[in-house]
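Give me the fold.
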Amino acid sequence: MIPALLLVLLAQTATPQRDTRPTRTPAATARISGVITSADPQPTPLRRARVTLSSDAMRVPRTIVTADDGAFTFDGVPVGGYSLSAFKEGYISMNYGGTRPPRGGTPIVVTAGQSARAAIALPRGAVITGTVTDVDGAPAQGISVTALARRYSAVQGEWRYASAGVAAGTTDDRGVYRIYGLPQGEYVVVAQSQTRLVGLPGQELRVVSDGAVAPRTLIMAQVFHPGVTTVSSAARISLRAGEERSGIDVPLQYVPLATVTGVVSQPAGWAPPIVTLTRSDDSAGVERIRNTRADGDGRFTFPAISPGQYRAIALSTAAPPVTTPGSQPIEAPRERMFGSADVTVAGEDVSNVALNAQPGLTIAGQLVFEGQNPPAVVPGRTVPPLMAGGGLGVPMPPIYVEGNRFKLAGVFPGTYRFVGVMRGVRAPIGQWWLKSFVIGGRDVLDAPIELRQSVDDAVATFSDRASELSGVVDAPAGVATDAWVIAAPTNRAAWFFNSRRLAAVHPDRDGRYTIRNLPPGDYRVLVTRDVDEGEWFDPSVLERLLPSGTAVTIAGVEKLTVNLKHP
């Protein structure tokens, strides 16, 4: 048996066998190569820079390191569109074709057999350095020093100073810090203890004089260069690319902590109020909100309060209805009362803060449904609030709906605006779109509203039809999804945070986009990758972007198609 089996094996080996398996056609590929240089007036090649190639079609981006002459090459790149970026220590990361780090950029599109070339110039990172001293003028070791840059907040809808996105410097034994890798721009520098940096209260101290411990407690303050405690008073430091600015010194300060006490006056039968103490000045990075519940007599206490400007707000809620066992109370809005007062803390205890609680405002009105579909029915239910703002730290009450009527009870007087994700505006509620919300004769969908008195004739109008603006972004597959399609009105009066006339969406993988329920008016539509989320609400950004947009007029409930070219 064995010799016979060997003969069969030898015969199979000697006689070539035809491979009947289907052949696989090699995937069409291309090459992307180029050079990474410095962005100096006399550019130099950057060796050992990291270059990353990515796209939505790639599960894992590809990264390589440049050679001594700054050159790089990606071989075997599948046909399609890609983003290219580069990074090197001491320089600012940039995207190919980008104008601002780290966003923006131009896609690289390759076809079968193509060899594409690309170059990226990296600006040098700027440096801020200086010395932190303690209250005696001696070097302060282990202090965190942070560079804050002016950034647009998509949450608050305003420009604020926030971390520049680079590692904070920590002082050494000489009290010296060094913050590096900063893009060109304007900064403020702030020093604070490590415990306060991570949200802890910090080390509280007491002064000893003549053998006696002083009653006043001290704490290390957050201090901005050149030695102030508010960001509005801090020195602005303008840096060029690669510039090193020294001498940005910070003298630490200890500030006395105070106790704030007071009393809330309210009618009998109301639950003990919640009192909020909110920082109202511009001291960035410090604890901004403190809450406590007053006792049965309405008295409240806030210990260990740093110097600054504050606002105290008392919120009282009507006691829940008394029910017998097994009964179900009818769901209804609960009344609320408010009291408020401004408080200045300057190191001394503040007592007898008087908060006289007054009934909150009421907004009531009717729901109107325009269209062929039956009106929506939401009896006896509360729905989330549509607006935010008013008092510092005071939430908007829920909206109670019964039949075609709605009511908000206990609204704090103040200025309100709609929240970012507005139900019924960018997406329907079921099959209904929010068409208008008129309070006191004013459509609050088109501007923030100042509420100072109760209203009972508000009208919220819904429609089962909405305008539709759609199209295709001409860009390689998978590249357009990183861009924003922005529709903005030409009327500058509508350029405010969360305006319903300002909309932005990401295209899908095929480059298609759709924006619905834009009100009638003149608009410009554009596509860009050179913005952060929410920046399109900033008027200065719109001034820069809109000239490149395509003009379009929405006359009513209609479908319009606007195809866009990816920059």
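Residues 1-26, 195-202, 327-331 have pLDDT under 50 and may be disordered.
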